[in-house]
Design brief:
alpha+beta, 8-stranded mixed β-sheet
Length: 385
Amino acid sequence: MGLPLRSAPPVPFEAAIEPVAAIEAVAWDALTRHAVAPHPFYGRRPVEAHRASGLGPADLAAVTVRGPDGLSGLLPFVLRADITGLGGAVAQPFLSPYVTETTPLVADGPDLDDRLDALVTGLARASGGRCWRWPLLPVEGRLGAGLVAALERAGWQVATVGSFERPVLDRRADHAAFLADHPHKSRLKDLRRRRRRLGEAGALTFEVTTTGPALERALDAFLELEAAGWKGAAGTALASRPDSALFARALFRQDEAAPADPPTVRADCARLDGRLIAASLALVAGRTAYLLKIAYDETLRSYAPGLVLEDQIVRALHDTAFADRLDSATLPGSPLEHLYPERARIAEILALPPGASLFPLERRADLARFEHRARAEMKRLIGRR
């Protein structure tokens, strides 16, 4: 008589491909709160704002990881035609002009490597063996570095297309400590001078709103101010198109009945004699405030009202501790490079699952770099016209 068969041990974490519309709201919100790197862009409300406005596909899907405690990982993704796909499609984390970070949401805890390994299994399934083109990945953070390590453990090839240093600011003990540590004291002196000049031109006041009708009024004022400037003339202001205006009204809101639903919203405004001269819209997740949009009165350009408001936000960060970090959410060349002293390295990578293609990954990366150079040259030529 043979030995009794033993059942296989349960798999603690399993990956799946799920429509985002089917993911439970409570579980998704909980994951957003407790993720290793809980940025706001793949939270439930921002993703739904994209879908409801038409800026995201109605049938958007996500790689999910589920374990003993439920939903443990999530990455919305799309398949799209791309030069690195050699005439075919590649997989990519969901992206829009209003998504500035693409790390997956992965629950923190002692089994993080197991969750990441399961996620990588899901990435291969989602792409059907195709290449992943992954922009805006903070590769030096715990999650970004862990994701790259998990890809390599699974035998994937990984190549870096390029990277840049994004300005971030970590809160000090107080504002005086921030000033004492700052490497660009001449820039701070210039900001104080501009703030003083604004104060001489009228009554300079600042206000913050986070919920309810006051937040809606701040959003309306922001949309009007942005549309009155160069973004409105170029057709890139949020109010310039029905879909982006709808997106803004869906995203930058916070119900007073549920003020803790992630991410939370913050609107900072600067007024001169009661007239709005600068406004900033931020999303706050995981003790980091992402300063996603700013607009200012361009007739007051010489006073730099936008930067004066940014400086006021830094003061508020230290005075009220509304977050532990400010993330500029910018591309290279931001004026905040002189105000925020820390940097986060943001990279674009290509990741190819084992056995996917004989075409070398580095050749694909060269194609992506060529595409970036061509776009930069086109922008330069257009700017000279």
